[in-house]
Amino acid sequence: MSTLPEADNFIEEFIVEDLKNGKHDGRILTRFPPEPNGYLHIGHAKAITINFEIAKKFGGSSNLRMDDTNPSTEETHFVSSIEDDIKWLGYEWAGETLYTSNYFGELYELALQLIDKGLAFVDDSTAAEIAEQKGDIDRPGINSPFRDRPATENRDLFERMKGGEFADGSKVLRAKIDMTHPNLLLRDPVLYRIKHETHHRTGDEWCIYPLYDFAHGQSDSIEHITHSLCSLEFRHHRDLYNWIIEALGIFPSRQIEFARMNVDYLITSKRRLKLLVDQGLVAGWDDPRLGTIAGMRRRGYPAAAIRNFCLRTGVTKRDNQQEFDFLEHNVREVLNVSADRYMAVLDPVKLVITNYPEGQSESLSSDNNPEDASRGQREIPFGREIWVEREDYRKEPQNRKYYRLAPEKDVRLKSAYIIHVDGHEEDADGTVTQINATYYPDSKSGEDTSEIKAKGTIHWVSVGQGIDVAVREYDKLFTDPTPMDHEGRDFLEFINPNSVTTITAKGEPGLADVVADEALQFLRKGYYTLDKDSTKEKVIFNSTCGLKSSWKG
Asked: Among all residues, which ones are annotated catalytic?
């Protein structure tokens, strides 16, 4: 046997153990089995990373299987969004996308086997009666009055359930295990229920559908999944997972649980995400304020940054809460190297260079990315009138170390000239309406022969050639880092009413040619990405994150 990679976490330790023991002839196959009832979120990104990266490390592969057993909530467009998200993250699954609905026939036959073995029965009890029968942690359950039906009667009833003879909720198929078992999930769990609803793939072919606990493990076995990696809330399901495998004598997939990953200010519950979408509190599943993969992509988070974040937070056995600042640290780390630089003025005030010839303009060169010379340069128009940030001007600087715009100060315009501020004009309220300056003609960037030294450099945009840019500035969607952790309070109480504001900025003309999903840096302001709704007529950018990290490490 060739040398095995070293295990970096407890899951990999199990895999190394299986490989050393020759289990499954050294084959490794994991799977990611989302339910297509919503968009994937940051917690799913963690699970995707774990499944695909571990399989790759040990020379294996991963299946993508849609857990589509509930026709009430599942839709085809959710399937497409899941596929797009996984591909965008940088992962490829083995073969075609698989579906639990592919196996409805096989699962039905497996259920008949349990019935014939006397290990499953059709129950006419209501949902409330079944819940009462199960008891609780301090009280053992009691047998259903229908538990001792003969196998032949159970088979007949189950076949008639499949044939559509019975109404929704009138009968279920339950496993016959132990109504006193300390694990409540093994107290005769429901395996099948009746649902006369159209399925997004099988149409009206079926009116009975397996529940998760019956469909999941058997689908793993049908696909010969070697290691079924899932989050910690499914630990108690493992006993049932293994019981069904043993009862049916099918392929013994191994379930291993890892801790969920939660992130401050982000929701990792599809049910609650759906509530936000349905109530119009966000602009769809891909709203940049959400922790959905589509939302983070729309906000400009690079796929590499999300992968890095998921890998760096590790694989643990305890649920953990990660800092939002650490997520942004990973985003900033990637964008600092990959993002091209542009100039945009978010709160513009006009600056007039009084000694620059009227009607004259020129083209200046600027580096696209100082971190990567291969990104080349771009041309930027320059003229007598430019836009600068209002916050870059002070009528009276408070200290000597202020190096931006102020009367009698010299300042470098990025990739252009050094200017000398002469003064300003203001309205009756004292608001500055125009800044006046002169420039040093021999101080042109890259050709500077002047003896003038400017300690400060600011960005700018030409008034004549600049374009209007709509900028959506995003803050956190919630005012509390863990809005779901307050007993007795609705998480919607913590919605931040100021989580998005839209301003009109002035941008250099090259911003009109940026493509969607392309994150960039507005010099001195932060990272931004072109929104999917942007057009040539209305250029829209979303704020991604600021330039400086607040993560303490």
From this structure: 35, 260, 270
